[in-house]
Each structure stands twice: as structure tokens, then as C-alpha cells.
């Protein structure tokens, strides 16, 4: 953003737009997913992710965050309902790339956290870390979707396990917020859709509280969105799913046009696009 979050993203109400899901998954993997690498690194460093870590990644997408954790020695399980993104995650986590022990400790589950818990392998339980890296706080209702995921995931974790939630920072510190407003404007004809909204200071804390988790620290991370050109920026941003309602209400051509116009202030002289952003993460603990 399971609700496919950045996946990654929470589902919109209304009819689904006609999109090439394989092409979108590839755009996410090749263009957009890397924008969150500073977030992954900051969390893994703070929590000292390593060989003793058993990680459950919610909405794991094409698996970059899992790969980074596995490279630190962690045993990783990724869950997502987007089969196109999971196919790319399997390419990244090919058994041939790891030694025998690491292969046994890497699992990808097509479905929900409950599906991971229902696996016959008893190693699917007892996670020490649960991550939900898809940033919430820009779509109305995305916190409720995350809370539903956590309700299935936290029973699989050890008592006192860390649960990491991520969210967009204040709009004034996220250049991309002005571009996301395009999605809200174009989707307005579809009443009842989950439109864009400004991130609120306590978004993550409210989700944690409703999920029965105990807050245990937070942090902010600079995650600038940088693209080779406007076309790459448009493809990357659409791959998040945040513009699905806009595409449904209008069409791909209209969304592409207005996105390109909104990106113009962030295009540099060499044609590249650069948008500074700040994301926030919350570390909570299971009880």
C-alpha cells in the first residue's frame, strides 16, 4: 500500500479501473518501491534486525523490504494479495540466491496474515517483528484497513514483539502531497470513494491504540521521491494505486495529463523530478 497497500494501497470503493496489473507491478518494483528504502533502513537499524529476527511483512509487495531484512540475516515471511507483485518478490528471493538455511527461512504468502498463520509449517508463528511499511494518512479510511490487517497479524507474533506502522508526514513537509491532491480532485464525481486527505499527527497512534498495541517510540525519515523524467514519475505514482479512483472517474489519459502538470514545479533543468518528503514511523508492542 489483504488490502493491497503500496502496495502496497488500501482498496478504493467503486468500480475498479481497467489497468495492466503486470505493468503496474513492474512499475512499482522498478520505479516506486525504492523511494521507501530510507524508511526500511531506519527501522531495521533502530530495531537491530538480524539473525535473531523473525519478520512478518504485511503488504510485502515486490519484496524489496524483505530482501533488505534477509540480507541482515532475518527470517522473513511476506504476505500480500497482489499476485503480480508477489511474482516479482519471488524473483527477488529466488532460492538459488541464498544458502540452505536462508531458503528455509523465507516464505511468501498470497493472501492475508491469516493465511500465513494457517500454514502447516509451525515456523510461521512466533514473529518478533511485524512491519506495515505502506504509509497511511493520505486516503480516508486507510487506517481502518490497516487495523484489520493487524487484527489478523498480531496473534502470530510473540508477546512484546515490535509492530512497525508507517505514515505520511505533515503535508507542508511532503512535496508529493500537492500532487496527490490531483487524485482527490479527479475522483470527486465518484461519491463515497476514499479520497486523498492531509495526514494527521496522530494517525499512527490511533491505529495502534485500536489494534490493542502499546506505543514504544517513533521517528521521522526523509524519503524524497526522485524520477528520471516526468513519464517515470507518472508511472511510479500511478503504481501506488492512489490514483485508481481518479482513473475510474475520468480515464488514464486525463489522469496522466493532470499528473504531469502537477509535477511541473518539481521538474529540474535536466528533466529529472525531485520531491522532498518526510515519512513517520511508529514502533508499537504486542501485549
UniProtKB/TrEMBL annotation:
BP GO annotations: methylation
Keyword tags: Methyltransferase, Transferase
One of the record's GO molecular function terms: methyltransferase activity
Keyword Flavoprotein among UniProt keywords: no
Start and end residues of each Methyltransferase type domain: 56-96
Lyase among keywords: no
Pfam family, one: Methyltransf_11
Domain of life of the native organism: Bacteria
Name this protein carries in UniProt: Methyltransferase domain-containing protein
